[in-house]
From TrEMBL:
Source lineage: Bacteria, Bacillati, Actinomycetota, Actinomycetes, Catenulisporales
Pfam families: CHAT
Domain of life: Bacteria
Domain (CHAT): residue spans on this chain: 637-904
InterPro entries xref list: CHAT_dom (IPR024983), TPR-like_helical_dom_sf (IPR011990), TPR_rpt (IPR019734)
Name of protein: CHAT domain-containing protein
Signal peptide range in chain numbering: none
């Protein structure tokens, strides 16, 4: 059959169509192929079909189809059509990691193609050249092709060129040039309706935002790209690897590692060997950050081998750098490792990688210092340190770290501390852009090494005030700034409401009395729950904060605010546990001993309290639990407080052992102990402090940081004590009512499924007759949020749920489902004094830098000064008795910490802790 103009036109149209809609383009190409044999139209249609398989992620089929297109075109003398097919084959072979074959096809095509087609080939050739590190040639190809494409009005290929050239500039650290190319590409692709090209541009705009420090924008851009890719069925992208890189930059190592595992699985399935090598490199980086250097070394070796086969020497050096870092993390210090690290620094610099050369040289300097080669170490540190005043934050932070190590290696500890503080300021500026709580909390890990080194120097010279300043420099920094609401706040609210409905429906289906729920329906609801949780989590991360420098921490101001109180701040360095005490303006440092030894006793205390509260086991088992509890809490009390007893209470080592478990005065207690302000570290945040003899019977406030306590102390009139009282029989109005969304000062809420909740709230309602009372069907999440917003005092009796996998989904049970931390973050302010009358409602996830995530920590960032809650299980009947006694003490004008101490001593019931200021 002779070639018709219509059939040729439809074949050409299928090529255009496949880039916009791969499925439609494939259908059009197959229709052309079904009509006739081997001719020019068939060659063109086969090219379109090959491109559709490429867009669909089936690279092997794409290569086979394009090679058939070349064969058909050559057979019928259509050498130009064969060259067009070769041009399409270039990138696909490169995606498969066959870079030499890709370059060979480009050479064959270049001898035939002219005009705009030659410029299009330059785009594909330039991409391959970037991948193998021949960037100068790649840039020349792009500069040669762009004027031709612009003159031809070819927006699609100009967008492709702009995207590739932007990638080249990104790798070289030329971010202004990269931005100009990407923004023009974004305009072109959007105006022309090239959605997949726009997704590619969004992906690289996200990477640009990541390397310049704007992680919220980076995540937003990546999610935009993901939506476009999913809409068009695009597979084989490096989207997951890029997301892992952003999460890693925010300190979310475990989440990044899970994400990159998805990338590896996707690339393995699709055959994109080129992207797979980069995914293995990202796996190495995430595993190393996640504390698994053995897995990091294995992944780095895999990536290095793949890069080598792809002729990507510069990338192979990146993989080797990850491998060297993994070996360093396992403790290796050898001349061979030093040579390798130093050589990598030079090669990575020659390849113009922006950050990696500084990382490699800093690592080499540390190895040299450990090998007692001071001159070599100083030279390497100096190479990195000279960049401390310019460049992106990531480089400047590395440079200040190098400057600190250089100062130490030359015997200048004061200069080292100055450099460490400068480096932490860079980290603070970098982290300030993060508005979401989870990003802020995890990002603290990026400054932990500098803060730890500063703390080590202060401990070595025995300067107690310096130890306190360094401990407070990086401790719980995220709680000192209010979380930022994400831009799309209404959508977040809708997703939270839907999530609540799904969780409530799941709970109903999974109840023991329900037998009709199908596994399919439960699986569907669980999948929807996970989808909504991801949507809430991801959207909240788009929120962007701003940097506002904090004033330096002043121990003198703290000492003045403490008054008669005594502060005990626990500090950990490796396994060494220390304490700093502040009493009457005097700051002292104390070495306590092994942190692990403390944790062993803590585990026993928590386990036995759990057994006792649940009345688990026979009377004999209960008695054994009580004996183990009494022994372990006494041992734990000795480990934590005996070394600081004299500094804390001003007496001998045997003074101030507190009140016994049953409320009876313990031996040596004179009732004259001062109130304590305790700043825990690590797992000590989960310690029921009031169970310890030293703390029992005296006012104790447990706070995430001394700086946070000091801020709360200066926050003005609060609830309880001399600040104005929490009410009393008069109804609980405190003068802060106007700030409440309800117009009330006191809120009382009884949640579902808690036996003591309704009677407890009914009894308290008699004490606070003007309080907002929520119970039964009225105790919904929306009503609770509205009432809690701006309240002076809130008492919430409901189950608390701590989510260790994602603490911001920790929740309080409302009638219609969970009231999440994310819900609380949407309030104007949380109650000044908040009482959570439920088991373990004060548990928090602890991140590096003693960053806390959970219900207890969230409310402090949102305005709560004092929280009374439990970190252990507590019996329901005991809880009601203790809560009524607590409010009776508050009504007498006692500050919250003193009120809790008196109520616990009077009832003999423990388990609850006063967190925050305490009055």
């Amino acid at each position: 059959m002779p070639l018709s103009a219509d059939r040729l036109a439809r074949a050409l149209e299928s090529v255009d169509l496949v880039l916009a809609d791969p499925a439609a383009g494939r259908a059009a190409a197959e229709a052309v192929l079904a009509e006739s044999g081997d001719d020019a139209a068939a060659a063109i249609a086969l090219r379109a079909l090959g491109l559709s398989w490429k867009e669909n992620g089936d690279l092997a089929r794409a290569v086979r189809t394009l090679r058939r297109a070349i064969t058909v075109a050559e057979k019928c003398g259509e050498h130009y059509r064969a060259a067009e097919a070769r041009m399409s084959l270039v990138v696909i072979l490169s995606d498969l990691g066959q870079t030499e074959a890709a370059l060979a096809e480009a050479t064959l095509a270049a001898s035939v193609l002219t005009g705009a087609d030659s410029a299009r080939l330059d785009v594909n050739l330039g991409l391959v050249l970037i991948r193998i590190g021949r960037t100068t040639e790649a840039l020349a190809a792009f500069d040669r092709g762009q004027p031709v494409l612009r003159a031809a009005g070819d927006a699609r290929w100009e967008t492709l060129l702009l995207n590739c050239r932007a990638v080249l500039h990104l790798y070289a650290g030329r971010y202004r040039e990269a931005s100009a190319n990407l923004l023009r590409g974004e305009r072109l692709s959007r105006r022309a309706g090239y959605h997949l090209l726009n997704a590619m541009i969004q992906l690289n705009l996200g990477y640009l935002a990541r390397v310049t420090g704007n992680l919220p924008e980076a995540l937003d851009r990546l999610d935009s790209a993901a939506g476009l890719y999913a809409e068009h069925g695009k597979r084989g992208t490096n989207l997951h690897a890029d997301r892992a890189d952003i999460l890693l930059a925010a300190g979310l190592a475990a989440e990044a590692r899970t994400t990159v595992a998805q990338s590896i699985a996707e690339q393995e399935k699709s055959g994109f060997r080129f992207n797979l090598a980069e995914a293995h490199l990202m796996h190495a980086r995430t595993a190393l950050a996640d504390g698994d250097p053995a897995a990091a070394a294995t992944a780095a070796r895999t990536a290095r081998g793949m890069f080598g086969r792809q002729r990507r020497a510069a990338w192979a050096d990146l993989a080797r750098h990850a491998e060297v870092a993994a070996r360093f993390a396992t403790g290796e210090r050898s001349p061979g490792l030093l040579r390798e690290a130093a050589g990598l620094g030079d090669r990575l610099a020659a390849a113009k990688w922006p950050v990696a050369p500084h990382e490699a040289r800093l690592l080499a300097g540390r190895i040299a210092a450990d090998l007692n080669r001071p001159e070599q170490a100083q030279a390497l540190f100096e190479q990195v340190a000279r960049h401390r005043h310019r460049g992106v934050a990531e480089i400047r932070a590395l440079a200040w770290h190098a400057q600190a190590l250089h100062a130490l290696s030359t015997g200048r500890p004061t200069a080292a501390e100055q450099a460490l503080r400068a480096g932490l300021r860079v980290h603070a500026e970098y982290n300030a852009v993060l508005g979401a709580t989870d990003l802020r909390a995890h990002a603290a890990a990026r400054g932990e090494e500098l803060a730890t080194l500063g703390l080590r120097l202060a401990l070595e010279r025995g300067d107690a005030r310096a130890v306190l300043r360094w401990a407070e420099t990086w401790r719980a920094a995220s709680l000192r700034r209010r979380p930022v609401r994400p831009p799309d706040d209404e959508q977040l609210a809708a997703d939270l409401a839907q999530l609540r409905r799904v969780v409530a429906e799941l709970a109903e289906m999974e109840a023991p009395t329900v037998r009709s729920a199908s596994r399919t329906e439960i699986s569907r609801l669980n999948a929807e729950r996970l989808r909504l949780e991801a949507a809430v989590r991801d959207r909240s991360r788009y929120a962007r904060g701003a940097y506002a420098p904090e004033p330096p921490f002043a121990p003198a101001a703290l000492a003045e605010a403490l008054g008669e109180r005594v502060l005990v701040e626990f500090v950990r360095l490796d396994d060494d546990l220390h304490a700093v005490t502040v009493r009457d303006g005097l700051v002292r440092r104390h070495r306590l001993g092994s942190y692990q030894a403390v944790l062993r006793q803590l585990d026993v205390v928590r386990f036995t309290m759990n057994r006792m509260s649940r009345r688990f086991g026979s009377p004999v088992m209960q008695k054994a639990a009580v004996e183990a509890y009494d022994h372990s809490r006494a041992v734990l009390d000795g480990l934590l407080f005996e070394p600081v007893r004299r500094a804390m209470d001003g007496g001998g080592a045997g003074v101030g052992v507190g009140v016994g478990r049953g409320g009876e005065p313990a031996a040596g207690w004179s009732g004259a102990e001062r109130p304590l302000v305790i700043v825990p570290t690590g797992s000590l945040h989960a310690l029921p402090w009031t169970a310890l003899p030293t703390c029992a019977g005296r006012p104790v406030s447990v706070t995430p940081s001394a700086r946070l306590w000091l801020s709360a102390a200066g926050a003005g009139a609060g609830v309880g004590g001399t600040d104005g009282g929490a009410g009393g029989s008069g109804g609980g109005n405190t003068g802060t009512e106007a700030a409440s969304a309800t117009g009330r000062g006191t809120v009382l809420m009884a949640g579902p499924g808690l036996a003591h909740a309704e009677p407890e709230i009914a009894a308290l309602a008699a004490r606070y007759p003007e309080a907002v009372v929520l119970s039964g069907a009225d105790a919904t999440a929306a009503n609770a949020a509205r009432a809690l917003d701006g309240a002076a005092l809130a008492h919430v009796a409901t189950h608390g749920r701590f989510r260790s996998d994602h603490p911001l989904f920790s929740s309080l049970d409302a009638h219609d489902g969970p009231l999440y931390v994310y819900d609380l973050e949407r309030l104007g302010s949380t109650p000044q004094l908040l009482v959570l009358s439920a088991c373990e409602s004060a548990l928090s996830g602890v991140r590096p830098g003693d960053e806390l995530m959970g219900l207890a920590s969230a409310v402090f960032a949102l305005g709560t000064r004092t929280l009374i809650a439990s970190v252990t299980p507590v019996d329901d009947a005991d809880t009601r008795t203790l809560m009524l006694a607590l409010h009776a003490a508050l009504a007498r004008g006692r500050p919250p910490a003193a009120a809790l101490a008196e109520a616990s001593a009077a009832t003999g019931i423990g388990g609850f802790v006063c967190f925050g200021f305490g009055g």
